[in-house]
Specification:
The longest helix has 24 residues, at 3-26. A hairpin with a 2-residue loop joins strand 10 and strand 11. The protein has 2 domains: 27-197, Oxidoreductase, molybdopterin-binding domain (Sulfite Oxidase, Chain A, domain 2, Alpha-Beta Complex), CATH 3.90.420; 203-302, Immunoglobulin-like. It has a 5-stranded mixed β-sheet with strand order 2-1-9-5-6. A 4-stranded antiparallel β-sheet has the order 3-4-7-8. A two-stranded antiparallel ribbon has the order 10-11. The protein has helices at residues 3-26, 71-75, 101-107, 130-136, 197-202, 214-225, 245-254, 256-264, 266-269, 283-294; strands at 52-56, 67-69, 80-84, 94-100, 115-120, 125-128, 139-144, 164-166, 189-195, 232-233, 236-237. It is of the alpha+beta class and 302 residues long.
Length: 302
């Protein structure tokens, strides 16, 4: 090989290597093929602990890849602000501002029919199906009282940041089967995923002969809004509790009364439990929830 040819190859290799290192220093460009305004700001590497992890069904993004948006990226979007007085995560009436999750779905390039899954640093998960988004307009909070996360209240003893989700005013919606929505208001949110809700909920949807049971269906509606926060069914659901869907099914099957009492007031059964009480569930609701979980047990006859 001639000296001139070797020099050309060396120059080309150095140029390519230089481009690689520059991209690492400034953060990766938007995924190829993305056209949504926020998708163009996605980075392949974290630049700050305040960056929001983003994944899921995104335009031009490989399935399973994790990307990052900075607070500054999110602040470039139109902000919505309001006073909130019914969020138990806050010490009292408080002004919040941020980005509606509906807008985030659009601006990040996710399919319009996707749900949003918000994941907190303790592996708690909150799910926002498209019906919930349209009815309640949840807000990804960027500022509380005009302040960034470093200035957010800590009266409750925990750090609400880097992100939380809230509503201007939550009014439970009731569907045709009298199923009532529960507020999805996680704090400590570090990641959002844009997912096909049919695939997410398929892991816990009643099947077989139980699919037509009104009691099991009512229990499923409660479980997917509440239990799915902290309990996992394989790859889906929260990991906070460490107690799986199968384990809950085994408990509900072995002792329905214990299961119902634990759901209503966990600390009466286990003083060290971190699970919140659920006094809002009456006996009928707890019976439905128990019937739903029993439907997953192989020991339960069809």
């Amino acid at each position: 090989m001639g000296a001139m040819r070797r020099a050309q190859i060396r120059a080309f290799a150095l140029a390519a290597l230089g481009t690689f290192f520059v991209s690492k220093l400034v953060g990766s460009e938007a995924p190829p093929g993305s056209t949504a305004p926020l998708a163009k700001k996605l980075r392949a590497e974290r630049t700050s602990r305040f960056d929001l992890e983003v994944s899921g069904d995104l335009e031009g993004v490989p399935l399973g890849a994790t990307w990052y948006l900075t607070r500054e990226d999110l602040l470039t979007l139109p902000q919505v602000g309001f006073m909130v007085s019914d969020d138990p995560n806050l010490p009292g009436p408080t002004r919040l501002s941020g980005v509606p999750l509906e807008n985030l779905v659009r601006d990040v390039g996710a399919p319009a029919g996707d749900m949003v899954v918000a994941i907190s640093k303790d592996q708690y998960r909150a799910n926002y199906p498209r019906d919930y988004l349209a009815e309640h307009h949840p807000l990804l909070v960027l500022e509380i009282g005009g302040l960034p996360p470093s200035g957010w209240p800590k009266d409750s003893g925990f750090d609400l940041g880097p992100y939380m989700i809230s509503h201007a005013k939550f009014t439970p919606a009731v569907d045709a089967r009298a199923h009532v929505d529960e507020a999805q208001i996680p704090w400590g949110v570090v990641r959002v995923e844009f997912r096909d809700e049919r695939l997410v909920f398929a892991a816990i949807r009643p099947s077989g002969t139980f699919a037509n049971s009104r009691s099991v269906e009512a229990g499923y509606h409660i479980a997917r809004q509440n239990c799915f926060h902290c309990h996992d069914a394989g790859d889906e659901g929260g990991k906070k509790s460490g107690v799986s869907w199968a384990a809950l099914s085994a408990i509900a099957t072995a002792s329905p009364d214990f299961f119902a009492a634990y759901v209503r007031n966990p600390k009466l059964k286990s003083p060290r439990s971190q699970m919140p009480a659920n006094p809002q569930y009456d006996d009928l609701a707890l019976d439905a929830l128990s019937a739903y979980f029993r439907s997953f047990s192989k020991a339960q006859s069809p």
